[in-house]
Amino acid sequence: IETEMESCDTFVVFPPCTANSVVIFGKNSDRPRGEVQEVVYEPRAEHKTGEKLECTFIEIDQVDVTHSVILSKPSWMWGAEMGANEFGVVIGNEAVMTKVELDTEESLLGMDLVRLGLERGKNAREALDVITQLLEKNGQGGACEESQNPIMYHNSFIIADVSEAWVLETAGRLWAAERVVSRFRNISNCLSIGTKIDLMSEGLKEEAKKLNLWDESESFHFANVFTEEVEKLPKHRARFAAGTCLLEKFSKENFFDIYAMINTLSDEESNICRRLTAEFPSAGSQISILKKDGRNVHWFNGTPDPKRSLYKPFVFTQNARLTSKIRSPSINSSDDPAKAKPRFMKAIDRRHELYKLFEACYTKICEAEESGDIYGEKRSEVQRDLIEKVEKMDFGRIGSELFNEAVEAEIHFYKNLI
């Protein structure tokens, strides 16, 4: 079904625009209302030769070793909206509509490609190669939401590490990539790569000519060639432009920091941040601080509406583990409507404990904010305390419970609101 999501914004900011010469990545994952996003950790693993991997809809060949990853993912699918790996690679994707026909056959989802890039790539370029090779081999297709009348779309990505970022945009199995090494870049639900194409799928221009999308009368501009002129495109372009303006604004003094990314992801005027009650709420968010010395910190909320949620810090440690309170309940494959065929014939409750508590408090949170109550101030104080705690910690002594302790503090905070 060719319906467009009002969905997602991804950002990356490089020195010299950032404070302390770090790289800062951020994403809001906007998903259909009611869909639960969980935060999960998967440890490094070795696999047997010939082993197969079950992605959301299809099976592919497994690799010998998969890296440890932290993922923010819709609870019904295998893939992820965003995440990070032990080597400091971060990836987020966006839905885009293109002139290349959608493949309704089940294949890899863009979210599967995000996870595969993180599990298999030791740096941004490796992750880019993983994603593009799998895309060319398998294509992209299938339901992108848990529904009998699902949304389907092509994908764009920001793939980053501490040295560089790649904007990857796709149209079916075709793709183009733009390398970013300074200042900033963002993507929304519109193609944005123009004539600066640093890598592309083999025969891309010839395919565009075969599809009667380009005739060589002007320079090859990826977005102009492949953009589908859908009804909501002006809104997507406006949000993309607003995101660029926010990055410009907050990096003006070359002091873009975690608070600047929080403010960017919390911007409601631009529609970058959307409430729990929206048709496509901001279902989950990620901020990653990447440093040259590898002391990376990844912040996830695991609840909707980043303006009113808390980011919790995660650091890859030897014995890292994540609390089950931010993971959806496990469901037997035979009872899971996302795995049984025909798919999505019933709805099930996938809410995790933190989601339920946040949802129960949400109306009170919004009412308190509108009445001038000090809730917002208190929430900001809790967030600030978490950030300052991490900044003051001896990185080598950070324990495996850092994220879990932050979840417990958040639960305590919400229980005091009820």
Automatic annotation (TrEMBL):
GO terms for molecular function: cysteine-type exopeptidase activity; dipeptidase activity. This is Secernin-1-like protein. PANTHER family: LD30995P (PTHR12994:SF17), SECERNIN (PTHR12994). Pfam families: Peptidase_C69 (PF03577). GO terms for biological process: proteolysis. Belongs to the peptidase C69 family. Secernin subfamily. The lineage of its organism: Eukaryota, Metazoa, Ecdysozoa, Arthropoda, Chelicerata.
